[in-house]
Design brief:
The protein is α+β, with helices and mostly antiparallel strands. 53% of the residues lie in helices and 10% in strands. The strands form four sheets. A six-stranded mixed beta sheet has the order 12-14-13-15-16-17, sandwiched between helices. Strands 1-2-3-4-5 form a five-stranded antiparallel beta sheet.
């Protein structure tokens, strides 16, 4: 049994989905807020019976591997490694499968981990005293230093370099990670010097980057790791790994601006705070939070820059279909000093008094305008309408347009018109091809590359089997088209309008990839045959699982005759599996028609 199969047998989609979303039972399935798109009502469905997920909002679907690949941004072999490690599975890894990908990723991880050890040790040495005093002055406790693994970068050019060398880390990788810089002569040097170090962790707690605050008068007060193969800053939030359980528990998340805001709030018991990483909030970061809660509070500094950041934050969330709330921390204060003076109780009050994000936006633009000048009004109205028009959900957008018109006391007709709405975001999402298993992909590829196979395979494709495939919609369209076009796919055009976004994208993807499959007809037959067997086998497994649970029920209800009947049925399915794999190869003679 290969690694993939072993992992599949050990884990259910529920185990894996629970890493990322909060599942609520819904019939025999589970529902959650979708991790791939922002939403208020859950359309992300987890189906343990078929061991898959599917989102009815953005149409993403797949199995445990695709979920991990998407969420952790990993290749397939990396996703297998991730699952083995995360769930501590007793699986023997087939070495060659991903040695290359692994060693490259391992080298990044090793360099970061080595740097982290160095920075943490520095904080405790002689030179680190300076940094310890600084943290003590800011009231950061030792426990907090531990929780956030804070460190210190020595104020010289080669402290980390020496350490990484001694530790045997890959220096090229350290340069790629931005731990080291390289000058024109090719000499490498420490990039972080004389700085308090904030390790940036991935959602699952791996060290992926660092932030550093200068303790000297470097004009760059903060320095972050650059983008790297393992760090895409718009996808992560500072403190998220630590805050995640508290966000789950409280059902609320607080977005702040700085590292110290996150840390101090945490120390004062407000543990559901996170920060964007030194940039404007991104849609991906909104999604990340939205996977756990749609009650998101913006708690930014009480100065002009903070107000501007709040406006942009509200805009970003609204256009991603999340309505945020805005907490006021008082003129010229920041969350860090707010919680020191007012404590967690003060935070609670501010949460209760938080203003609706859209209201905040409206008020801001209305206060800014001078009512004596009608053109000011037009200007303010345009600014609000520009944001509202970006909201992709048509119902929500209409509602906000109405509220805007009311607030400005104008007729709805006088709002700047909506764009002919093919909204940018949902469009991009719907162009994502449907995610299907590799064998389904091969199956469709070969069918399209060598349609004559269709006449052979068609009688075997009963409803139940087709239904068990993710690409069933596409497959049905193909079956119909094949019979209408008298056994050739000559009228593909008609297919497009019968397929929805992700399915159409899948068809396109497959048509494109069939060009790269220079197999002859016989090889396509073999491929289709193998795929078909794997579908059949998968379906049989599902049936057997179902029967097993019915047997358990029968036993529990003390119904031995029913249990016996089910066991007989089960043994038939077990036999059927063998029968298929031995006795139903396709007759290839009839399938030699050549295709245009
Ligand atoms: Zn979705």
């Amino acid at each position: 049994m290969d690694t993939k199969e072993q992992i599949k047998r050990s884990l259910s989609i529920i185990d894996v989905a629970s890493l990322y979303v909060q599942l609520k039972p819904s019939g025999k399935n589970f529902k959650a807020l979708c991790p791939f798109h922002s939403e208020k009502t859950p359309s992300f469905s987890v189906m343990p019976e078929r061991n898959i997920f599917h989102c009815f909002g953005c149409h993403k679907s797949g199995d445990i591997f695709t979920l991990v690949q998407e969420m952790e941004n990993l290749s397939f072999p990396e996703a297998m490694d991730f699952l083995i490690e995360r769930f501590n599975l007793p699986v023997e890894r087939h070495r060659r499968e991903s040695d290359h990908a692994r060693s490259s990723l391992d080298a990044f991880a090793t360099a970061n981990e080595s740097a982290l050890r160095h920075f943490r040790a520095n904080l405790m040495d002689d030179e680190g005293k300076h940094a310890r005093n600084y943290l003590a002055e800011r009231g950061i406790s030792n426990t907090t230093i531990e929780v956030f693994a804070l460190g210190y970068a020595h104020n010289n050019w080669d402290s980390l370099l020496q350490h990484l060398r001694k530790d045997g880390a890959d220096l090229d990788k350290a340069v790629e990670l931005g731990l080291l810089g390289r000058n024109r002569e090719g000499r490498v040097y420490d990039r972080f010097r004389g700085r308090i170090i904030f390790p940036i962790l991935s959602e699952s707690g791996k060290i992926i980057a660092f932030g550093g605050r200068t303790l000297f008068d470097d004009p760059a007060k903060y320095l972050n790791s650059p983008e790297s193969p393992i760090f895409h800053k718009s996808r992560h939030l500072y403190g998220f790994h630590q805050a995640r359980p508290h966000i789950r528990e409280s059902g609320q998340a607080i977005l702040v601006e700085g590292y110290f805001d996150v840390i101090t709030l945490h120390q004062f018991g407000v543990r559901n705070a996170v920060a964007a990483l030194g940039t404007a909030l991104s849609g991906e970061q909104v999604h990340l939070l939205n996977r756990y809660t749609d009650e998101i509070y913006l708690f930014y500094d009480g100065d002009d820059a903070g107000t501007q950041a709040t406006l942009r934050g509200v805009e970003c969330m609204l256009t991603h279909n999340v309505s945020p709330r805005v907490m006021d921390c008082g003129k010229d204060r920041d969350p860090d000093d707010f919680v020191r003076s007012d404590g967690p109780h003060g935070i609670k009050e501010r949460i209760e008094a938080a203003e609706d994000g859209f209201r905040f936006l409206l008020n801001h633009f209305m206060e800014e305008m001078d009512p004596r000048h009608p053109e000011h009004k037009r200007n303010a109205l345009n600014q609000v309408a520009r944001i509202v028009n970006e909201i992709t959900d048509p119902i929500v957008r209409q509602e906000y347009r109405r509220r805007t018109a009311d607030a400005f006391q104008v007729d709805l007709r006088h709002l700047p018109p909506e764009h002919a709405h093919s909204p940018a975001v949902s469009n991009r999402e719907s162009r994502q091809p449907l995610l299907i298993s590799p064998s389904e992909k091969e199956f469709l590829q070969s069918l399209l590359a060598s349609p004559a196979i269709f006449s052979e395979v068609r009688p075997l494709l009963d409803d139940e089997l087709v239904n068990s495939l993710t690409s069933r919609g596409l497959l049905r369209q193909l079956m119909q088209r094949y019979s209408e076009a008298s056994r050739r796919f000559e009228q593909m055009d008609g297919i497009w309008k019968d397929l929805s976004g992700p399915e159409a994208a899948l068809l396109q993807e497959i048509l494109l990839s069939t060009r790269d499959v220079p197999l002859n007809h016989e090889s396509h037959c073999r491929r289709v045959e193998n795929c078909f067997l794997s579908f059949q086998e998968r379906l049989n497994k599902v049936r057997i699982r179902e029967i097993n649970s019915r047997i358990r029920v029968a036993e529990r209800d003390n119904n031995p005759s029913e249990a016996v009947r089910l066991m007989q049925q089960k043994s038939q399915y077990l036999k059927k599996k063998y029968k298929v794999s031995k006795e139903e190869p396709f007759d290839q003679k009839g399938a030699r028609e050549s295709i245009r």
